[in-house]
Design goal:
Layout lengths: L2 H19 L4 H8 L3 H4 L1 H20 L5 H21 L3 H28 L6 H30 L1 H22 L9 H6 L1 H7 L3 H21 L2 H9 L6 H25 L1 H22 L3 H17 L1 H11 L4 H27 L6 H23 L18 H7 L1
Length: 407
């Protein structure tokens, strides 16, 4: 694996920690800064909103900038945001730090996925994206327990200091080890700027893939948002068991990300359809068997596995459908966050309607099934094939042996 991919994975690990770690720190942060639990919750909600906005905004305004320079700049923004949170004297400054850190999130994964896939031959594109996202999936496993452990021992500010240090390390590693040629902006995008990218987003295949992303990811997240209640109120686990059950779920994300990347490089559309179909079935079966402990452990792992197996293929598909336009990669991250909000809202409505704590699983299954239908239509109406080596997102003059030497 090119060392440049490892450095991108380190950056995604730091960003993932920032996203997930706050869940275990909210009581400490709220108490320390003198705000209510509901107000402290905006450190999560505000982050998610900023991810959706930043994914489009920062990708759009940096369209003519060398992508390696963009990645370095985004990591600098990440460091600044977490530093603000670490030293925040007030809740407002802590929230500002979260917003600043979140702005880099979507754009980093969007631009980083384009840089990652150029470090490998075209037939390994989805695996390269999966390698970069591996950091995010590992952070999902470690984020909450890491934050809780460090926060309990040295205080919540120490957690943000640690993440700031990871950001500095990732920034330096990207600057040194990501090859410059992998971040070169192709001439059609450089000369045309934002306008040709907006034209690329007018493709029906782009919007159908984004819809499938939002529905597939949203259905899983809608179920996941209330999974702790399902475990404690339906399955009968104690609240202390939830932590290791979330590690099981996160382990599914890690394995599914790797397996999905490999499968998508062999047959992308079939992998996406199979992943979404399996996820919809898993959520429905989970709803039926949620009162069984062994079944719940197995099914929460499968929920993570199939939920993330589609991610690498979705990203490469939408960028290929858009001719390699970076804005499409950013839009994919925004679509997943819109899906997250939709899924969590629908799951909450089901619980509020008195349908019980298994209802989000059934709702999630229905939302994913809708995403599956969209994906089937997408695959049948058009094929987003990977660009040829001389295509719009390739840099002339770099044969694969030269690339390997540079990486």
């Amino acid at each position: 694996m090119p060392v440049g991919l490892v450095t991108l994975g380190l950056g995604s690990f730091g960003i993932g920690l920032t996203e997930f770690v706050i869940a275990g720190l909210l009581p400490q942060v709220g108490g320390s800064l003198g705000v209510s639990d509901a107000t402290a919750g905006w450190l999560i909600s505000g982050y998610a909103l900023s991810v959706a906005i930043g994914a489009i905004l920062l990708t759009a305004v940096t369209t003519r900038v060398h992508r390696k320079a963009v990645l370095v700049g985004l990591m600098a923004l990440f460091v600044l945001g977490n530093l603000l949170s670490a030293v925040a004297p007030t809740y407002a400054v802590a929230l500002l730090g979260r917003i600043v850190a979140a702005l880099c999130h979507g754009s980093f994964f969007g631009v980083g996925s384009l840089v990652a896939r150029r470090m490998v031959p075209p037939e390994r594109a989805s695996r390269a994206v999966a390698a970069m996202f591996a950091g995010l999936t590992v952070a999902n496993v470690l984020g909450v327990p890491f934050g809780a452990l460090v926060g309990e021992r040295w205080g919540w500010r120490a957690t943000f200091w640690a993440i700031t240090g990871i950001g500095v390390l990732a920034l330096a590693a990207i600057a040194v080890w990501v090859p410059a040629w992998a971040g070169t902006v192709d001439q059609s995008h450089r000369s045309g700027g934002l306008r040709p990218q907006l034209r690329a987003l007018s493709s029906g295949q782009v919007w159908l893939t984004l819809a499938a992303t939002a529905l597939g990811y949203g259905g899983m997240f809608g179920a996941f948002s209330y999974i702790a209640y399902t475990f404690t109120e339906v399955t009968g686990f104690s609240s202390a068991d939830v932590a290791w059950l979330l590690v099981v779920y996160g382990s599914g994300l890690v394995v599914g990300n790797i397996a999905g990347g490999r499968a998508a490089d062999r047959d992308r559309d079939r992998t996406l359809i199979a992943s979404l179909a399996s996820l919809a079935a898993t959520l429905a079966v989970f709803g039926l068997l949620a009162d069984g402990r062994v079944a719940s452990v197995i099914l929460v792992f499968l929920m993570g596995f199939f939920g993330f197996a589609a991610v690498p293929g979705m990203i490469t598909r939408v960028t290929d459908a858009a001719g390699g336009a970076p804005l499409a990669a950013g839009a994919n991250v925004s679509a997943s966050n819109v899906g997250n909000a939709l899924g969590a809202w629908l799951g909450g409505l089901a619980i509020s309607a008195g349908l019980g704590y298994t209802a989000p699983l059934y709702v999630g299954s229905a939302v994913v099934a809708l995403g599956l239908a969209v994906m089937v239509v997408t695959a049948r109406t058009g094929h987003a094939a990977p660009p040829a080596p001389a295509g719009p997102d390739q840099v002339p003059g770099h044969a694969w042996p030269d690339r390997e030497a540079a990486g």
